[in-house]
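Action item from last meeting closed. Structure (111 res):
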């Protein structure tokens, strides 16, 4: 399992990517793909189905990098807990003689 949940700090949505840009001025150094401007850190997240992006300075990007990693750790812990709980429930209910799940079967449409 990943880091203990109590030691995780803030957690936030979104993802962070590092970008280099060209300013479209043909006389600028960035016309050479090896000399683009940057790095710029772009944070993106979803709100009400829309993707929102912001450019961040490196210091702020480092914070978000950590918080995004924390969120991924929490999601992983939650996934593991779901799996464990599912198996535990099957075993506990089976010992009570009342298994919750028979064989998994597809949900009937229109039923
Ligand atoms: Zn440029």
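Sequence:
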């Amino acid at each position: 399992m990943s880091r203990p949940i109590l030691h995780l700090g803030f957690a936030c949505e979104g993802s962070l990517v590092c970008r280099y840009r060209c300013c479209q001025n043909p006389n600028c150094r960035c016309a050479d793909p090896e000399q683009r401007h940057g790095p710029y850190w772009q944070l993106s997240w979803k709100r009400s189905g829309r993707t929102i992006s912001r450019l961040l300075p490196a210091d702020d990007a480092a914070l978000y990098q950590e918080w995004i990693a924390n969120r991924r750790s929490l999601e992983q812990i939650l996934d593991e807990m779901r799996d464990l709980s599912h198996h535990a429930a099957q075993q506990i209910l089976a010992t009570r003689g009342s298994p919750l799940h028979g064989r998994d079967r597809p949900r009937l449409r229109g039923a």
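Note appended to the action item: The first helix runs from residue 58 to 95.
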